[in-house]
UniProtKB/TrEMBL annotation, chain A:
Residues 284-403 form the ABC3 transporter permease C-terminal domain. It is found in: Cell membrane. Keywords: Cell membrane, Membrane, Transmembrane, Transmembrane helix. The chain crosses the membrane at residues 21-38, 280-301, 333-361, 373-393. It is a multi-pass membrane protein. Pfam families: FtsX, MacB_PCD. InterPro entries: ABC3_permease_C (IPR003838), Lipoprotein-release_system (IPR051447), MacB_PCD (IPR025857). Belongs to the ABC-4 integral membrane protein family. LolC/E subfamily. GO terms for cellular component: plasma membrane protein complex. It comes from Flavobacterium cyanobacteriorum. This is ABC transporter permease.
From TrEMBL, chain B:
The keyword Transport applies. Keywords: ATP-binding, Nucleotide-binding, Transport. Belongs to the ABC transporter superfamily. Macrolide exporter (TC 3.A.1.122) family. It comes from Flavobacterium cyanobacteriorum. It comes from the Bacteria. CDD domains: ABC_MJ0796_LolCDE_FtsE. InterPro entries: AAA+_ATPase, ABC_transporter-like_ATP-bd, ABC_transporter-like_CS, ABC_transpr_LolD-like, MacB-like_ATP-bd, P-loop_NTPase. GO terms for cellular component: membrane protein complex; plasma membrane. This is ATP-binding protein. Pfam families: ABC_tran. Residues 6-224 form the ABC transporter domain. One of its GO terms (molecular function) is ATP binding.
Length: 409, 225
C-alpha cells in the first residue's frame, strides 16, 4: 500500500512511541467502555420501564373527561346568572362506542384498538374485603394488546370468554382471600351491585399493585356492575406502530372524535420524567469520562509537539506546509483514537454481554441491558470525534511553529 | 553572462525586542548558478538573519527577493513551503535529522513530499545520493545511530534529493571536528564545481570562506566586502 508521506510520518511517530500510544488509547478504551455500558444500561432501564408501562397502558386512550356545567348566559347584554359549576352527571359515557371503535380501527396508523369498561370493585370472602378495580374487556383483544396471556399463572383466557360469569383475578387477591381456580368470589361495585363470579384464571404481572387489585371480566358483567346498558364503554385504547411519536397520532385522532384523546406519555409523565433524568445523568457522567480520555490524548500529543519541535521545524524547512503538519498530528490522534475506540467498543460489548446474563430475580428477570446498534455506532463516532478534536489543538500549535526561531536558538 | 538564481533588492530587517534595531541594512546581492558563496561576519553581523530571509522562512523584512527570476516576497506561507520543497535544500549546524527514521527515509522525505517521482525512483535516487556521500552502508540504520559527521552528510544528501536550485547552509561545519569539516567542505566544493550546484553558506570558518568562489562580508547589517 502506498502511504501519503504525512501519514507515513504519523505512523512512524506512533510506532516509535508504543507505550505512549497504548496509554492514550487505553484511556479512550476505558472511557468508551464505560460510556457504552452506561448508555446501554440507561437504554435497558428505559426499555424495561416502557414494558412495565405498556403492561397496563395502551399508546393512546380515548375517554370522556369530566365536564363542568356552564352558565346559561350567552349574550353580553343579558342578565348574568351566577351558578355553581358542577360535574355533569352524564360525564363518563362515550356515546355510540361501537361506531367510534370501528372508526378508530379503520385509521391506517392504528395497529390495534379495544374498548374497556372500568369499575371500582370490592372483592370479599366472608368478612375479608379487598378494594380494587375491574375492567370489562374482550379478553382475547385485550391479550393481543397488552400481551396479557404471558402473565396467566392458572386457568385460561378462553375460559373467561366461554363463561359469562367468569372472572380473572390477580395473584395477590387470590392469595389474600385464599381462593383458587373454580372457586367463587363475591364482587361488589360502588353502585351497590353484588355478584358471585367464578374464578377462571389468575394472573401475575410482577407489579404488586396490579396483582393485588385488578380483575378482568366480560364487558357485559362490567356494564352490569355500573348499572349501564350494553352501549356503555368507559375508554377506548389504541396502539400505534411507533409509541415514540404517539403525539402525532393523538392530533390525528382528535379530528375524528370530540372525546379526550390522551397518549401514554401524558398519562405516565412522571415515569418518563424519571427516565429522562436518569438518561441525562448517566449520559453526562459517561460523557465526562470520555472527555477526560480525550484530554489524555490532548496531553500526550501536546507533549509530543513540545518534544518534537525541532522535527517540526525541519519538516517545515524542507517544504511541509502548516496543513501538512496538522494532518500529521491529527492522524496520530486519529490512530490512537481508532485503536482506543475499537478496543472500547469490544470491551463495552463484553460488559453488556456479561451483565445481560446476570439474573436479578423476579419481577425484573435478567438484567435489563441490551446490545443496541445505534448506541454502539453513535459512541464509536463520538469517541473518534472527541479524539480528533483533542488532536486538533496540539496539531494547530505545531503548525504555528516558526522554524527560524527554532534554528536560531 | 551567468544565470542569476537568487537576487535581493535593498533588503532591510529590524529586530524589535528589546529595542528597535536594524539588523539588515539595504542588502542587494545576486547569486549565480553554480556559485559557492559564503557569508561571513562577526557574531551579530546579520549573516544568519540574511540567510533565513533568503530561505523564505523569514518573511518579515523590507525590500524584495527573487528566486529563479520569480519574486517571492509577499507570497503566502504555503506557497513558500512549496518553493522551499522544490528549490532549496537546507543544511544546518546541528544535523536536524528526524531521529525515528532511517537515513534512507530521512533523505527520501522531501522527495516524497514533492511527489514528482514514484516511490521506487525516489528510493533509488536517495541511495545514489547516499553512496555519492559515502554512506551507502548506513542507509538503513536509524538516523540517531550515526556519528555527527555522518549525520551531517545524510542531511546534505537530503538537501540534494530534489535537485534544488540552491543549497543553503547555516554553519554546516560549526559542530564538526576538523576531519569531518574537511569532508563536508570537499563535498560542497565538488557539488559546486562538478555538478554546477549553487551553494550559499553562512560560516565563520575562514578556511572555508577563503576557498569558496565568492565571500560576502557583513558588518552591522551592511555589506562591507
Amino acid at each position: 500500500m502506498k502511504l501519503n508521506v504525512n501519514y507515513s510520518i504519523a505512523l512512524t511517530h506512533i510506532l516509535s512511541r508504543k507505550r505512549q500510544t497504548i496509554t492514550a488509547a487505553l484511556g479512550v478504551t476505558i472511557g468508551m467502555a464505560i460510556y457504552l455500558f452506561m448508555n446501554s444500561l440507561s437504554a435497558g432501564f428505559t426499555k424495561y420501564s416502557r414494558n412495565e408501562i405498556f403492561k397496563s397502558n395502551a399508546h393512546i386512550k380515548i375517554y370522556q373527561d369530566d365536564e363542568m356545567s356552564k352558565p346559561l348566559v350567552t349574550h353580553k347584554d343579558a342578565l348574568t346568572v351566577i351558578i355553581n359549576p358542577q360535574i355533569t352527571n352524564t360525564s363518563k359515557k362515550i356515546i355510540n362506542p361501537e361506531a367510534l371503535l370501528a372508526d378508530v380501527k379503520k385509521q391506517p396508523y392504528i395497529t390495534n384498538a379495544i374498548a374497556q369498561v372500568n369499575f371500582d370493585a370490592f372483592y370479599s370472602r366472608g368478612s375479608t374485603q379487598i378494594k380494587g378495580t375491574g375492567s370489562g374487556v374482550d379478553i382475547m383483544d385485550n391479550s393481543a394488546m397488552f400481551n396479557f396471556g404471558e402473565y396467566m399463572v392458572a386457568g385460561s383466557l378462553k375460559a373467561l370468554q366461554d363463561n359469562k360469569n367468569g372472572i380473572i383475578i390477580g395473584s395477590g387477591i387470590s392469595d389474600k382471600l385464599s381462593l383458587g381456580i373454580d372457586d367463587n368470589i363475591t364482587v361488589s361495585s360502588s353502585y351497590g351491585v353484588v355478584k358471585v363470579l367464578k374464578i377462571v384464571g389468575i394472573f401475575s404481572t410482577g407489579s404488586d399493585f396490579n396483582d393485588s387489585s385488578k380483575c378482568y371480566t366480560n364487558i357485559v358483567t362490567a356494564q352490569q356492575f355500573l348499572k349501564e346498558g350494553p352501549d356503555f364503554v368507559s375508554a377506548i385504547y389504541a396502539n400505534t406502530p411507533d409509541p415514540d411519536v404517539s403525539q402525532a397520532y393523538v392530533d390525528k385522532l382528535k379530528n375524528i372524535t370530540q372525546y379526550t384523546v390522551e397518549d401514554w406519555k401524558t398519562t405516565n409523565a412522571d415515569v418518563l420524567a424519571g427516565d429522562s433524568v436518569r438518561g441525562l445523568m448517566m449520559g453526562a457522567i459517561s460523557l465526562s469520562i470520555l472527555l477526560v480520555a480525550g484530554f489524555g490524548i490532548y496531553n500526550i500529543l501536546n507533549m509530543t509537539v513540545s518534544q518534537k519541535i525541532n522535527d517540526i521545524a525541519i519538516l517545515k524547512a524542507i517544504g511541509f506546509s502548516g496543513k501538512d503538519v496538522i494532518r500529521i498530528f491529527v492522524s496520530e490522534a486519529f490512530i490512537m483514537g481508532l485503536l482506543g475506540t475499537f478496543a472500547g467498543v469490544c470491551t463495552g460489548l463484553l460488559m453488556v454481554k456479561i451483565m445481560s446474563g446476570i439474573y436479578v430475580g423476579p419481577p425484573i428477570g435478567y438484567f435489563p441491558i441490551y446490545f443496541e446498534l445505534h448506541i454502539f455506532a453513535g459512541s464509536f463516532l463520538l469517541g473518534l470525534g472527541i479524539t480528533i478534536c483533542a488532536g486538533f489543538f496540539p496539531a494547530r500549535k505545531a503548525s504555528k511553529v516558526d522554524p527560524v526561531s527554532i534554528f536560531r536558538r | 553572462m551567468q544565470d542569476t538564481v537568487l537576487k535581493t533588492q535593498s533588503v532591510s530587517k529590524y529586530f524589535y525586542d528589546p529595542v528597535k534595531f536594524r539588523v539588515l541594512d539595504d542588502i542587494s546581492i545576486q547569486v549565480y548558478k553554480g556559485e559557492f558563496l559564503t557569508l561571513v561576519g562577526k557574531s551579530g553581523s546579520g549573516k544568519s538573519t540574511l540567510l533565513y530571509c533568503l530561505s523564505t522562512m523569514d518573511t518579515d523584512y523590507e525590500g524584495s527577493i527573487e528566486i529563479l527570476g520569480k519574486p517571492i516576497t509577499g507570497s503566502n506561507i504555503d506557497t513558500l513551503a512549496a518553493i522551499r520543497n522544490e528549490n532549496i535544500g537546507f543544511v544546518f549546524q546541528f544535523h536536524y535529522l528526524l531521529p525515528e527514521f532511517t537515513c534512507l527515509k530521512n533523505v527520501m522525505i522531501p522527495a516524497l513530499k514533492l511527489g514528482r517521482h514514484s516511490r521506487e525512483e525516489i528510493e533509488h535516487k536517495a541511495i545514489e545520493k547516499l553512496e555519492m556521500l559515502g554512506l551507502g552502508e548506513q542507509a538503513l540504520k536509524p538516523a540517531s545511530k550515526l556519528s555527527g559527521g555522518q549525520q551531517q552528510r545524510v542531511s546534505i544528501a537530503r538537501a540534494l534529493i530534489n535537485d534544488p536550485a540552491i543549497i543553503m547552509c547555516d554553519e554546516p561545519t560549526g559542530n564538526l571536528d576538523s576531519k569531518n569539516s574537511k569532508i563536508v567542505f570537499d563535498i560542497f566544493r565538488q557539488l559546486s564545481s562538478e555538478y554546477g550546484q549553487t551553494i550559499i553558506a553562512v560560516t565563520h570558518d575562514n578556511d572555508i570562506a577563503e576557498r569558496s568562489d565568492r565571500t560576502i562580508t557583513l558588518e552591522d547589517g551592511k555589506i562591507v566586502a
